[in-house]
Amino acid sequence: xxxxxxxxxSRVKDAPVEVVDIVVPDPGPGEVVVxxxxxxxxxxxxxxxxxxxxxxYPYLLGHESTAVVSQIGENxxxxxxxxxxxxxxxxxxxxxxxxxxxxxxxxxxxxNATQKMTLEDGTELSPALGIGSFAEKTLVHSGQCTIVxxxxxxxxxxxxxxxxxxxxxxxxxxxxxxxGESVAVIGCGGVGAAAIAGAxxxxxxxxxxxxxxxxKLEGAKKFGATHTVDSSKVDAVEAIxxxxxxxxADVVIDAVGRPETYKxxxxxxxxxxxxxxxxxxxxxxxxxxxxxxxFGRGGSLKSSWYGDCLPxxxxxxxxxxxxxxxxxxxxxxxxxxxIDQIEEAFAKMHEGTVLRSxxxx
Length: 361
What we know:
27% helix, NAD(P)-bd_dom_sf, Rossmann fold, six-stranded parallel β-sheet
């Protein structure tokens, strides 16, 4: 029978979030209900709240989670009741043109649960990224569940569900950082810090962290930054060039997603270098660049969707790196909070005083 559980919703644009009772149905074919253990407070949830993603309110927020499978629907074979899982928003279909080309990490038709979770009065909820896990239970497609070891801290590994995976993947998968290369990361919040960690994991030898916040720059060092640049005091492009022999970095990752920072990334790379955009811009933002510069500098300009990851491959691999001590996921967890503290966590995120607040359910 359906479950009534506590959850966090955004009822209208830019209003404070609310903790309310919602109704989670029993899973249908291909669906599972999970008991949520932890959920990171991600910038994407704030974008939903502020109307930066859509207007399909009310939204059921939360998506960066570790959970335990509590019910499975018909035809579910990849997980069973009791499995510890990380939730993902790229449940590949296996049939779209990207999957048919052998590129499932770009799947254009990812699966979500078919049924809707609702408020008690029957109002349908729009789950953030098809997950909606600021809740005691949530309903997802079985393909959104990736099994992980139970001995890993759920608060730490759950962050692979979105922001940390986005940053690490921007470096390793999209930027294709190679051993001995130089990397600059603009913006050292959660995603940027993860990109720095990914660059270190890939073997980069010069890793430059760029931000306007001294505390974030200091924190970037523990994830692998070899140099820091305070772009409120110096020109970021010139500083990156100075630290790379006057040439620019092999890979520059924009983890902010603004026209100003993208231009910095574009001009701070070496000739034939790679620019990776992983910061999420707003719909109103416009970029203007001289086309001759785009042509003359060569290289590649890439956007990184979810770190161009394949959860079934990347999540277990990165959890193993964490367990081996090569990837410090614990340091991304700034604080552990309860479900009624999410509005405060959004404020801290806006102030730049946390990498991740993690809700423990």
